Amino acid sequence: MMDVQLKTVTGELDASLVGCVDDLLQRSDICRDDNIEFWALAFSDNALIGCMALANDAIRCTAIDSAYQSRNLLAPLLAEVRYAAIERGRPQLFCYTKPQFRGTFAGLGFWPIAEVPGLVTLLEDDPRGVERYSDGLVSTTKPGTPVGAVVINANPFTLGHEYLIREAARVCAVVHVFVVGEENASFSYADRYAMVSAGVAAMPERDQIVVQAGSRYVVSRHTFPQYFLKDAADITRAYTGIDLQLFRDRIAPPLGVRHRFVGTEPTSKITAQYNKEMAYWLQDAISEAPAIEVHEIHRIGAGDAPVVSASTVRSLLAECRLKEAKQLLPPTTYDYLVFNMHIAQDPVQYAGPERRSGADPS
Amino acid sequence: MQILRDSAAGTLESGDAMVRVSPSDDLEVNVSSSVEVQYGTQVRAVIADTLRQLGVVSGWITVVDKGALDCTLRARVQAAVSRSCDQPLDWKLVVEASR
């Protein structure tokens, strides 16, 4: 019987471990994710033979040395990661893996919920998790058709988002606005949700609009694992495939959504590919769920900016150019930033959403 | 006993089971078992019986069974529930129920 020692690491790996973890991951064609909070490592004779990691509510960076793959090393690693997740208040886990390992994880209590063939499978550890979420959405429906949807990060909520939602409301009787729930943005989810709610409440179309609470089934591009995908095109293909399958199969049907509205960024290659993928997964891909028509809405400009984007607003805020930022924001967002987040005109008091002390007044 | 917070017990090794419990208004038990075909019904019955003995009437319970014996299953369910409410097991209940 082989002697296996388990070791767990919270946070960053120390220098002596980084090398062997990277080596093991590379032999499985994957790279180390950079937002890992917890590692479970398996050693035999002081050599690393298996690893698994936790980031947010997802299992990532799983690799087993090819010589030990029949030894059921995943079981002890998964148990360690499971206990670490529970300690952190995350009872439910996702698992991203290559499609060929779907069966292995199925034996450990994971059910596949979306898959992009050849690239990635998303599994969850609850046989009814996504179904329960779908069922819960039914209570948020509003009478009227057609029904449309918008998915935004709102980091922060800008005039661009407002325009997108109002355009959707012009075509659709009911519009569901999904705010990405993951905490990986400059503004917290609670702040982003509050800004969207305030912005929508001020719109003439507010009675047609439902602001949906963030959900772990609305996947954020920022936290999508990129580590086992070779190039940017594959990453976009994998991310969009998972996100859009969940949207079409699980989120849209209970709400009756048949239209999705997206902003276009004519200069961004990634966005162009994303929108192409969107047309495929929402319309052409084979699915039991009805097809969803994709509407590309051209971005508007405001103030001195040719297009309003949240990233422009964030840079302006970071540089204390609140006046210029104001031109790109609905009054509700401006008020929220000033009164609730105490973002001030005076750079001495405030130096951007991430830096609150040691501001340089110059 | 009332499930007050998320907790777990057990492992995923062969012959064991991993039990997770979370607070919920309803009682929902999900079981996946490597011996589903032969013993699925029995595994579910043991879990339901153990929960009943512990007086658990609500909660979200997930069991990944890797062919655990009945006594192991009972022990893992008892441990997960007891950890979830910071209460030591009432051994009198357990002993009486197994008589």
Explain what this protein looks like in three dimensions.
- The complex is a heterodimer of chains A (about 350) and B (about 100).
- In chain A, helix 6 (about 190-200) crosses helix 11.
- Chain A is built from eleven helices and twelve strands.
- The radius of gyration of chain A is 22 Å and the shape is globular.
- Chain A has helices spanning about 15-25, 75-85, 100-105, 130-135, 160-170, 190-200, 230-255, 270-285, 310-320, 320-325, 330-340; strands at about 5-10, 40-45, 45-55, 60-65, 95, 110-115, 120-125, 145-150, 175-180, 210, 255-265, 295-300.
- With about 350 residues, chain A is of the alpha/beta class.
- The N and C termini of chain A lie far apart (about 65 Å).
- By secondary structure, chain B is an alpha+beta fold.
- Helix content of chain B is about 40%, strand content about 25%.
- Chain B is built from three helices and four strands, in the order E-E-E-H-E-H-H.
- A four-stranded mixed beta sheet of chain B has the order 1-2-4-3.
- In chain B, a hairpin with a 6-residue loop joins strand 1 (about 5-10) and strand 2.
- Chain B is globular, with a radius of gyration of 12 Å.
- Classes of the chains: A alpha/beta (about 350), B alpha+beta (about 100).
- At the A-B interface, helix 2 of A face strand 1, strand 2 and strand 3 of B.
Question: Short summary of the structure?
Answer:
The complex is a heterodimer of chains A (362) and B (99). Chain A is of the alpha/beta class and 362 residues long.
Fold topology:
The complex is a heterodimer of chains A (362) and B (99).
Chain A (H helix, E strand, L loop, with lengths): L4 E6 L4 H13 L10 E7 L2 E9 L2 E7 L9 H14 L6 E4 L4 H5 L4 E6 L3 E5 L4 H9 L9 E6 L6 H13 L2 E6 L9 H13 L7 E4 L19 H24 L1 E8 L4 H16 L8 E6 L11 H9 L3 H5 L4 H10 L22
Parallel strand pairs in A: 4-5, 8-9, 8-11, 9-10, 11-12
Antiparallel strand pairs in A: 1-2, 2-3, 3-4, 5-7, 6-7
Chain B lengths: L6 E4 L6 E6 L4 E7 L2 H19 L4 E7 L4 H15 L6 H8 L1
Parallel strand pairs in B: 3-4
Antiparallel strand pairs in B: 1-2, 2-4
Helix pairs in contact in B: 1-2
